[in-house]
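Board notes (copied after class):
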Amino acid sequence: MNFYYNLNIHNTRSVYYIKSGGKRLGLREEEIEAIISPQEIRIFRLSCKILGKTLNFPGIMCLHNDARGPYKGGIRISNDVDIAETVELARLMTLKTAISDIEFGGGKTGITVDWNYLYKLYDRRPIDIQFEKIVRLDIVEYLAQMYRDTFKNHIYVPAPDLGTGPEEMAFIYNETLDPASVTGKPEGVHGWLPGRRESTGYGCAFITKKFLQECLDRDVQGSTIAIQGFGNVGSHLAKYLHEDGAKIVGITDLYGGVYNENGIDIPALIEYAKKNGTILGFGSSNLTNEELFSLSVDVLIPAATGNVINSEVAKNIKAKGIVEAANNPITLDGMHVIEERGIPVVPDIIANSGGVIASMEEYSRSLSALKVKKEDVFSIIEEKLQQGFMDSLKLSKELNINMCESAIQIAVERVYMAMKNRRYI
């Protein structure tokens, strides 16, 4: 009997596919359960002094599986963090590192911040980018102090995620003084990696091109793209696809969206977003998420948050294919509808794994005085992504299953072998 079921963290898409893949591989039920379940969940409270006030922020650290290497996963700061989401994201990282064939495991940290409350408490007007940066940096600094030994001993190697970036990672390095204790560090900081910030978006753009060629019989030149999300991943993804000649017709962020049937001026949009903290107000045509998801495009790329495409949304999707740049953007019931409609999907554990592949390079090179070139980092990302993509595509055709399921089956087999060899099961 598994007590984790009481936490309501098993009713997810990844669990569904791990079970089906594990059964095809002939694994026993208890072995499948060991792959699904997290090794450790830490619930904590950060007491932080921010701009003269003491505030408390609840948080969760899930250490899912370290059979293939140290726990690896980003630090997420958001208003909707919960146990189920954090465990699912940690589990996805275990699968992601396995399908990418790199020597990390899976972990994740989530910290809940009610931004509306903070804006009122400090009498600030949204959107105050500088205020939010102060809060995030202070939170991560206190987190680094609380879990200094966990990071310094490479038990868990964190990285940026939603709501955090390179500057926050520098604060972790300030505490540990170990360049290999954290990845995604800013340029110039000991152990930083050229191309790390762009790596997830670059990798997703590369996979989108492969997907167009291999599954949709289209060239990237002139293909139409819709992207949900314009943060670090979405903006770099849009930049690289635009440079390769794709026509990006629709983009949305948290506050609004932009539509242009002739293609959006991506360099101008990036500059606008840097100045305004949103893409809302750029151009004359606004766009909602609902409208974005129903655009008739070659590829729809959800690059924001999870669980945005459920069964109802999936019914209205008109894209020829979907690339999951965000973590778990399609729910299990949404996947059933999309599969029934014959729309191919590149799973998140392949599409957005450029970041963790780059993190492996940063981690392994952190104590080296030799600095690798950005082009070399991108080349490694391309090699790893192409192998994972083609292996998953091949297995999906052989077993007549979707690529989300085939990628997870490959990952499950690799995790199982590592757990078996280390006598975890």
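Comment from the instructor: The chain has two domains: 3-181, 199-343. The CA atoms of residues 191 and 368 lie 8 Å apart.
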